[in-house]
Structures are given as structure tokens and as C-alpha cells.
Amino acid sequence: MILEEQLGGQEILNAGVYGENGQTSEGATSARDASSDSEALTDRRHGIVLEGIGLSYRGGKVLKQALDDINMKLEPGELVVVLGPSGCGKTSLLNIIAGYLRPTRGMITINGQRHTAPDSDVGVVFQQANLFPWLSLARNIEFGLRMKGMPKARRKERVAYFLEMMGLTSSAGMLPHQLSGGMKQRAAIARTLATEPEIVLLDEPFSALDALTRENMQAHLRQIWSRTGKCMFFITHDVDEALLLASRLVVMHPGPGRIVEDFANPLTTGDTQRPFSEIRASQEYTVLRQFLVSRIGGH
Ligand SMILES: Nc1ncnc2c1ncn2[C@@H]1O[C@H](COP(=O)(O)OP(=O)(O)OP(=O)(O)O)[C@@H](O)[C@H]1O
User: Fold this and answer.
1) Which helix (H) or strand (E) holds 240?
2) Which CATH topology does 3-10+17-24+31-121+197-297 take?
């Protein structure tokens, strides 16, 4: 039975599917037809467009193909969650979007400009917060703004704004070692958002946190996302985290890394602030969870 039927005919998969061999995969029904998908994808004027991205790593004389023909468009206001088994190329793809790695094939554009190296259009949040240990929390958030040459008064204003957004105002003067894991990660997200990137890449940002802090951080991230309207590209191994947060779900398979599912998350469509408890209690959650688990495992 295809996923659409499992969910009672609801129109669920409408973000455009760029699956294996360009086909929609079993269970994926795109609301757009193939031609409008490809037109949207080749409109490079807005958003982040990845076209034909391939990557091979060289190990001595051997080339290992890590990514093959990745095509996707990332738009403002999307929270794209990428799932897939270990080694399917999630981090490689993130590193390419960050500009840390040059793809072997294909290209990325951001609002029509070729993107080939790290720049302020792209912010990255890692698993570990990597704050400067000698700087206070506020100074850590301010750091990137100083580097950009922003005048002091504006820096102060912006830091205060993001401290408030993250619920960190009362901890502004503390050093990283005085903060909990969740506070450090909130500071890292604030530091990234403060520089106003077009896209924020998050590589398993909550995987080092305990379960309760992790759930708090998920709720926090969702609020920040809807408040800032940023495009976020979020990697996780956690299917539940993906289902609660994503506006769009992407599944990758290895050998070589490629996208096999790419669809709007029906659990959050129309209500991005739907309570987690309500999402978890819905029948669609169970069905979609099973579907994702089978798609991640079935390669
Ligand atoms: N620097 C490198 N040199 C050679 N091969 C690499 C390198 N980095 C990654 N690879 C290979 O590329 C493939 C994709 O790796 P990548 O880390 O992007 O996958 P991933 O999906 O992020 O994995 P995980 O979920 O375990 O973090 C893997 O087969 C990996 O072994």
C-alpha cells in the first residue's frame, strides 16, 4: 500500500520529489508534475539551488563516489530535515552547501550567485557548540558581527535581540564552561543566526544532549525558525526528531549517496507550531514513522 493510501488519501507529499533516476519513488506523490519541478529547480534567481551535485573522495589511487546527482532547491522558511543511514553522505552534502567541500560535479547557487566557498550567506551549527572558551556568551554571539565590521551600537542591539530570543539574557556574562549543554547549543545557534545567513545548516545539533534538554531544544528551534523565517537544513539520525521538526523531509541512501524521498511533512503542514504531544498522538505519525524507518533501512 502506498503511503498516501496509508494516510487515508491525504495529499501529503507535495514538496517535489527528486528521487532515484529522477522518478518519484513508491509511496511518494508529487503535487507538482515533473516539468514544473524542473522549471522550479532551474530558476536560480531565489533560494539555494543544488544542481547535479556529485562528490568523489580520493583515497590513494582509488576514487570513492560519496554523492551522485543531488538536485534540490532550498527556499526561505523551510525546515528541511535530512535522514539516512550512516555513510549515505549527509555530512558531505552539508559540507558542500557550507562551502567547506567543492563538489566534483554540479553547482550550487544562492540567490543566483555561484557558491563555491564558505561565506556569510551560510551559517553552520555543529554537534558541539564550539564556543570560544575565553569569551562570555554575549561576546561569543557578537564575534561574527565584529568580524563583519558592524558598528558597536548595532552589535549591542543585535546581541541583545538574540540573547532574548534564546532565553539567555540573564546568562549574557557567563563563560561557556559555566553553561549547560542546552545553553551552549542555544548560544551556538544565536551566534549563527546573528550574522543573518540565508541558510542555517545544523549537523545533528542535539545528539549530544540528554533526552529532556533535547526535547526543549527541539521546541526552541521550531519557535526560532518560525520567528526568523530562515531556511534551515537539519541533519539527524532520529526519526522522531525529524517528524516533529521538519516542514520538509528528505531521505538519502548510500552507495553512492542520493536522495530517494523529498516531501512536505504532512504532520506540520498548515500548523508549524502544532504541539509535539498532539503530533505524536496522531495516527499519521505512526504511519509516517513506519514509512520513514522502512525507507531508511530498506536500501
Ligand atoms: N574525507 C573522506 N575521505 C574519504 N571518504 C570519506 C571522507 N569523508 C566521508 N567519506 C565517505 O563518504 C561517505 C559519506 O560519508 P558522510 O560522512 O558524508 O556520511 P553521513 O551520512 O554523514 O554518515 P554519518 O551519519 O555516519 O555521519 C562514506 O562512505 C564515508 O566513508
Assistant:
1) helix 239-245
2) Rossmann fold (3.40.50)
